[in-house]
Amino acid sequence: MNLRGNTILVTGGSEGVGFALARALVDHNRVIVCGRSEEKLRRAQSEVPELHTRVCDITDANQRGELLSAIEHDFPELNILINNAGGGHPVDPLDPAAAEIALHADMALNFTAPAELATRLLPRLRARPRAAIVNITTGLVYLPKAELAFYCAAKAALHSYSRSLRWALRGASVEVYEVLLPLVDTNFHRGRLPQNIPAISAERAARLALKGMLRGAPELRPGKSALARWLDFLAPRRGLAAVNG
Ligand SMILES: NC(=O)c1ccc[n+]([C@@H]2O[C@H](COP(=O)([O-])OP(=O)(O)OC[C@H]3O[C@@H](n4cnc5c(N)ncnc54)[C@H](OP(=O)(O)O)[C@@H]3O)[C@@H](O)[C@H]2O)c1
């Protein structure tokens, strides 16, 4: 995949992995980042003034529609969507009230919104001579964590959708990438970064993801994500025990 001369939308690009991706891409591409917090977007733009920013909660259908209309108007040449925004609610999946909230919120953010953005942008992307959809998922797709049951299930859905889309688009101008990230030290963990597994930095996660895309590898499993896949295959119970501490 050529990472120069593109117009790229990075959802959740105001901090963490999304911001690291945006920062790494902005020298040779036009990059638009979105997020819910205007303050975080302002901070991101003050560090990287070339970024274009847009406030948008991608789980809100109206805001998603406004984002797409703004892009159509301001950046009709958009050719890469990076579905990065994500997050999970840690809950006891056996607690009905808490589970109900996490189920809807985690599916909306980690599956419905990225799949909807991809679906709505696809006609436009298919008209470009080269284009890509990049879905950021997790090694927990293979070995889910019980307290993030709905987040893991939503990412597993995005993993499955990425594979279907790649198959449906074979031979077309739109490439489909999936980056199954390992543990990354970001605000995702809200100060509770698991200590039983080594974490990589957001900058390293972005570097590894972009290196893989440059190579044209459709499914990237940096760091411990590759191990998670093999553990699931060879010793799933041991793998689940390791992930669930
Ligand atoms: N950190 C990890 O260990 C890890 C591991 C595997 C996979 N991942 C995946 O990597 C991706 C990036 O995670 P991260 O660690 O960089 O998280 P992060 O540091 O918490 O950043 C999340 C970004 O998404 C934005 N965001 C959250 N909810 C949003 C919404 N409803 N609408 C629009 N933007 C929203 C946030 O901005 P606002 O808060 O302003 O909206 C922020 O810019 C996610 O898909 C995550 O699932 C992370």
Automatic annotation (TrEMBL):
It comes from the Bacteria. Signal peptide: none annotated. Keywords: Oxidoreductase. InterPro entries: KR_dom, NAD(P)-bd_dom_sf, SDR_fam. Residues 6-183 form the Ketoreductase domain. Belongs to the short-chain dehydrogenases/reductases (SDR) family. This is SDR family oxidoreductase.
